Amino acid sequence: MQVLNFYSRIFADQLKRGRKTATIRLGDKSHKYRKNQAVLVTIGYQFSPREKIFDAVIDAVEVKRVRDLSPRDIEHDNPEFRRHDELIHFLEQIYGRTVTQDDIVTVVRFSQIITHPPGFTDARLGIGGAQN
User: Fold this and answer.
1) How far apart (Å, rounded) are the C-alpha atoms in residues 94 and 88?
2) Sign of the dihedral through C-alpha 32, 37, 38, 42
C-alpha cells in the first residue's frame, strides 16, 4: 500500500478532524498518486516511527502551477491559509528552497475510509430490503 506521509505534527489534528483533505506537493507527482488509489495516511519522519492516522482513498490528482491554485485548493491543504504567498512561504520551509508562482505542484485530494460510518445503511445505498 502507498503511504501519504506528513512530517509536521501540526497536521495530525487537522487530518483527524477532517479539516485537511488535500496535500500540495512540489513537482509533478502524478506518477506516484492515482485517482481511486488506497493510501495509508501517516505522520512522522523518515527512519523514525510513524503514526497511522487513517486509511484514505485518493479522489483527485491535479498538476498545475502555483499561480493557478485556487483559494479552495490552498484551504484544503491547510485550513489556516487562503493566499498564494502563505502557501509559498510554507512550501519553502518544507522543501528548503525558493518557490515561485511558476513552480509546478501536485494537488492530491483524499477522503478518509471509514469502516462503518454512523447512519450509513444499505437502504441509503438503495440496496438490500429498501422499499420504493
Assistant:
1) 10
2) positive
How far is 11 from 77, CA to CA, in rounded Å?
Answer: 10
Distance CA 123, CA 10 (A): 38
User: pTM score, two decimals?
Assistant: 0.84
Strands (E), the chain: 2-6, 22-26, 38-43, 51-65, 104-112
pLDDT digits (tens, 9 = 90+) for 74-83: 999 998 898 9
Q: Which of 121, 83, 117, 118 is nearest to 101 (CA)?
A: 83
Query: Residue for cell digits 498518486?
Result: 33
Sheet with 38-43, side-by-side order of all strands? 2-6, 38-43, 51-65, 104-112, 22-26
